[in-house]
Design goal:
Jelly Rolls; elongated; mainly beta; about 35% strand
């Protein structure tokens, strides 16, 4: 599916069209296993090994696990996410940023400082547009510690990425 259904007067509406409208494409992926060794001063895609919700198969837990394929349905998407960082005694800043096809989305970077303790860098909701069927989004993390820092999976702390289809472009 690459385009949402459209309707005009006199056209018969099919159940699949109504199902699309009542249950639009959406996906929420999360980490159930921490991602070890994210290098310092390098934007690194966050990988996700679990799906909380993914009825349209926008994410794979075996291939390109950092990606959510929003190109399966072209148009506008609402995206949010969070990188949860483990404790590290060095460095002062933790970041997360959203990318489409590896290119950062303007206005999507979140910076948390000071941050040597457990910290989550939340990405509030942002709208992005998919224009080709190969478009994908990724959440990337960055830190300035002197050594690698892992993500955190503990209790309610865990990194996640969520996307919900809004409308045709």
């Amino acid at each position: 599916m690459t385009a949402p259904p459209t309707f005009s007067d006199g056209v018969v509406v099919h159940a699949t069209d109504l199902n699309f409208l009542l249950n639009p494409p959406a996906c929420m992926v999360q980490q159930n296993t921490a991602q070890a060794a994210i290098p310092a001063s390098t934007y690194t895609p966050i990988t996700f090994d679990a799906e909380s919700y993914d009825p349209y198969n926008l994410h794979s837990t075996s291939t390109n696990t950092s990606r959510v394929n929003i190109g399966l349905v072209l148009g506008w998407w609402h995206v949010s996410g969070c990188v949860s960082w483990a404790t590290n005694a060095t460095g002062n800043t933790r970041r997360c940023i959203l990318g489409i096809n590896g290119t950062f989305v303007n206005g999507s970077q979140i910076l948390v400082s000071p941050a040597p303790q457990i910290v989550s860098a939340p990405l509030p909701g942002i709208f992005v547009q998919s224009t080709v069927n190969t478009d994908y989004i990724e959440l990337q993390g960055w830190h300035d510690a002197t050594a690698s820092v892992a993500t955190l999976v503990s209790g309610t702390y865990r990194s996640y990425l969520a996307a919900r289809y809004l409308a045709a472009a």
